[in-house]
Amino acid sequence: MLEVQRTKIQRPLLLPQKPAFKKAEAEVIILREVNENLIRQILIMEERLSEKMRYNRQDLLDSIRSQQEFLFCCIKGTKILGYAVAIPHNNAVAEIGEQDPLMKNDLSNLKYYVDRINLKHSGMFDKLVKGFFKKLIERGYTKLSSHVATSNSLNKFVLIKLRRIITEDRKDVYLSKFSSEPFEYMEFDLSKFVY
Hints:
- This protein is an alpha+beta fold.
- It has a single domain (27-192), classed as Aminopeptidase (3-Layer(aba) Sandwich).
- The protein has helices spanning 36-46, 57-65, 89-96, 125-138, 154-162; strands spanning 27-30, 70-76, 79-88, 111-119, 143-149, 166-174, 182-189.
- The protein has a 7-stranded mixed beta sheet, with helices on both faces.
- The longest helix is centred in the C-terminal third of the chain and has 14 residues, at 125-138.
- It is globular and about 40 Å long.
């Protein structure tokens, strides 16, 4: 009987090539035009905050249209990952200086006050902060100030991440207009910031 020997043909397995798509990177922009999609996303994120602290639609529109205020958005495609609102420091002193009498006007007018940082997740902190610090530095601003929340431990997170550029740190500042919880007042020197 004749034996038939079968051999396996060795061929490389060829899979169809997928087109190379570049994964969208998150970027920080200054929102200067009304974008209903982004505003809607911001308002949804604002709902996580206490009612006293929330921005409403008009507050956001005012920030967008203002020549002095900045609404920084960290976006990826059409999704917002976080945002920050910065106003001139002296405007913040006028608004809340009675509740924090140690907060003084900045004579150089080169200081901005971070009124809000809101992130979908803490992993976006570095991206948002680096982006908006860079944009402020490009515009000639050298200092920042903020009352940082303690109730959600944001103050501890900021201390760890930005300790090298903190120039002032005062604990237990009460701003009853916004919350019964204490805040931590911090000032930052942007000239020491490395990005």
